[in-house]
Amino acid sequence: MTYFTHQNNIFKRPIVAMGTFDGVHLGHQKLIQRLVQKAEKLSGEAVIITYFHHPLETIHKKTFPYLLTERAKKEKLLKNLGVDFVLYLKFNQKIAKMSPEEFLDEIILKEIKTTSLVVGYDTHFGKDRSGDHKFLQSFAQENELEIELIPPLKIGNRIVSSSIIRDYVREGNMIEVKKYLGRNYTLAGLVRKGHKLGTGLGFPTLNINPADQNKLIPALGVYLCEILIEEQRYFGLTNVGYSPTLKKTGILEVETHILDFAGDLYNEEVEIIFHRKLREELHFESRNDLIDAIKADIKAARKYFNLKGNDYVLL
Q: Which CATH superfamily is domain 186-305 in?
């Protein structure tokens, strides 16, 4: 049986790492750097086995917002680190019910045909996540499979993990997110038509529809951000919330105002790069109070990004 469809799985000497790698955070990067080094030393290929979405979706049969990185973003980050191949395993009920032995035998040995695995300290696979590093070592001795364990990366006394980063995103703490992620948090999506209420106030906004419904949206509030549009970098403010002063829809929206920009971006792909949370989303008593608050936000953004007039300079 083929577990990886529409992908070329014929390798000379694949060195493999497997996991969700959501976020491709600093801990993941430590493992991947070792994977790439080993592949180069052995004149082989650095191969990542990952998933379209988290296996928990299959196990619990529901979707939920948790993704730190969209699929395209994750693959780009992995390739930039030197990974040669990113293989996507469709985690279905058949795979969920596989024992650790079956998983390694059917997928890792017979299909990928690797003799070397690089794994993280918390690796788990197979039914009920019963396959761990201890099991791997035992299996490896009987099947001529080399296992290299990568110890955890710590910042202070905390292990870098996707779950910690998710907690900080949910808090809106973009400073801590960047510390563990190794870069600013981002959100990709399409610009869709909104209510044009921002335009009516004199501050037009882009209404962003996330590219992945499972993307973890930051906590409610106003954020200082960069905006990438066709590799062009802009600066502005992003409001995550319900716009309670102007709207009564109760629908969570991501709206971005770009400083010193004019143009129609409907249906364009954009990427929002979050720098820091400026303030909470507030309900104002009047439109004038809201306008004053937006003016203050823009002033703060210009100061943060060192913008003068219509000129902008990336710090």
A: Riboflavin kinase-like (2.40.30.30)
